[in-house]
Design a protein that fits this description.
The chain is mainly α and 101 residues long. Helix content is 58%, strand content 0%. It contains 7 helices and no strands. Bound molecules: heme C.
């Protein structure tokens, strides 16, 4: 019981902040969900593109993680930057490379 009072007053004193990721605007979603949400509209469910546009399967196989991060966060080749926090972008890049779109 004493512990609960102690923790409660500690929260009052320093504030019980949400975890860091929530503060920085990261979604904390899985790579699959992030791709579906932010990429599939233009690149298709598996990166195959839509109507012969936006096939990124080859680019994904040849680009490294850094280039993929840049492509997502800064855009390029006619693609607008995608509004993702860095952690989400890293999760997404790892998923893209592991799943081998
Ligand atoms: C609004 C449409 C749109 C969205 C959303 C989008 N892209 Fe793109 N993307 C493009 C276009 C257009 C190109 C360039 C033309 C092409 O490759 O067909 C491109 C190109 C790329 C390339 C190839 C770059 C190269 O060097 O050849 C990669 C990789 C890529 N996008 C990844 C992503 C990822 C990952 C996401 C999700 C975070 C995403 N894109 C979201 C439109 C989009």
């Amino acid at each position: 019981m004493k512990n609960i009072v102690f923790i409660a007053s500690l929260c009052l004193l320093i504030g019980c902040d949400p975890p860091k990721d929530q503060e920085s605007g990261c979604s904390g979603e899985t790579g699959a969900a992030l791709f579906e949400e932010h990429c599939a509209a233009c690149h298709g469910e598996a990166g195959e593109g839509i109507d012969s546009l936006g096939d990124i399967t080859e680019a994904v196989a040849t680009l490294g993680a850094t280039a993929l991060m840049d492509q997502i966060l800064e855009g390029g080749n006619g693609m607008q930057p995608i509004a993702l926090c860095e952690t989400d972008a890293e999760i997404l890049v790892e998923w893209i490379q592991k799943e081998g779109l």
